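User: Sequence recovery, please. Input:
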């Protein structure tokens, strides 16, 4: 061994000792254990092309996202329920706003309603009862991007919208990342209570749902009048009561009694 090698070895020993002293040997060992688990996941899952930082788990804040080409066998667990996310075309009556700059189609009544296609953005089922500890798989059946986001002040965006707390106090303020077409997002609902969730890009369009976890005598969420009109419409449907969701187990989007469909012309009015 040359003198230089000896010097280098000496400095390596010193720096290594310094590191061990700084973090404590116990900490260093548990960090190594973590690395082993992570690389096991990275090499095992189909569709997992990059190294990942943690073993597959359903995070309390970020849940678990399964990409479109990911095999279910790579998921941390199999879900107990599935909720699909849709964008479906629908015929709606648009109130035509009379204006001198607007060309009126020959034969059309100026200012009268006109039927046009406008999509529904929705979760299906839109009401779901689950047991504490159940895992729900939110699956994007559409070509758009959606999120599954807890109704909590954390996700308010003043002055555009303010969210009150409409999940149990013991639950973390969770949200999925944007879930793209054909992707899944898993979340585990541990804390009993009523959870109202929304899709951030489509809140104004009424893309919300309600999950009831457990079956104690939960109170109906209050303050609907502060919500965007399209959200009031969904949560105001009689089928969306906590009592009905627990009784039915699941409420389909098509089952909602919606007296007044959202009027797209009023969607983006200043409130
Ligand atoms: Cu959406």
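Assistant: Recovered sequence (271 residues):
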């Amino acid at each position: 061994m040359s003198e230089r090698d000896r010097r280098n070895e000496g400095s390596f020993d010193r720096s290594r000792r310094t590191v061990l002293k700084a973090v404590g040997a116990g900490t260093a060992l548990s960090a190594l254990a973590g690395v082993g688990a992570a690389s096991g996941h990275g090499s095992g899952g189909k569709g997992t092309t990059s190294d990942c930082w943690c073993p597959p788990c359903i995070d309390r804040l970020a849940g678990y996202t399964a990409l479109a080409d990911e095999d279910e066998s790579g998921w941390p667990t199999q879900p107990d329920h599935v909720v699909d996310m849709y964008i479906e075309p629908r015929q709606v009556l648009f109130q035509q706003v009379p204006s001198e700059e607007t060309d009126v189609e020959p034969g059309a009544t100026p200012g009268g309603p006109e039927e046009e296609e406008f999509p529904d953005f929705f979760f299906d089922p839109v009401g779901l009862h689950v047991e504490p500890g159940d895992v729900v798989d939110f699956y994007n059946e559409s070509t758009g991007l959606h999120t599954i986001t807890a109704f909590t002040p954390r996700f308010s965006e003043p002055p555009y919208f303010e969210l009150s707390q409409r999940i149990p106090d013991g639950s973390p303020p969770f949200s999925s990342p944007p879930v793209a077409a054909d992707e899944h997002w898993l979340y585990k609902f541990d804390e009993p209570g009523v959870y109202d969730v929304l899709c951030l890009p489509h809140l104004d369009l009424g893309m919300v749902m309600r999950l009831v976890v457990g079956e104690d005598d939960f109170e109906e969420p209050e303050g609907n009048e502060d919500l965007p009109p399209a959200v009031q419409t969904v949560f105001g449907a009689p089928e969306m009561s906590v009592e009905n969701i627990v009784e039915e187990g699941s409420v389909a989007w098509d089952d909602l009694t919606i007296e007044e469909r959202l009027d797209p012309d009023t969607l983006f009015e200043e409130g």
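The chain has a mean pLDDT of 79.
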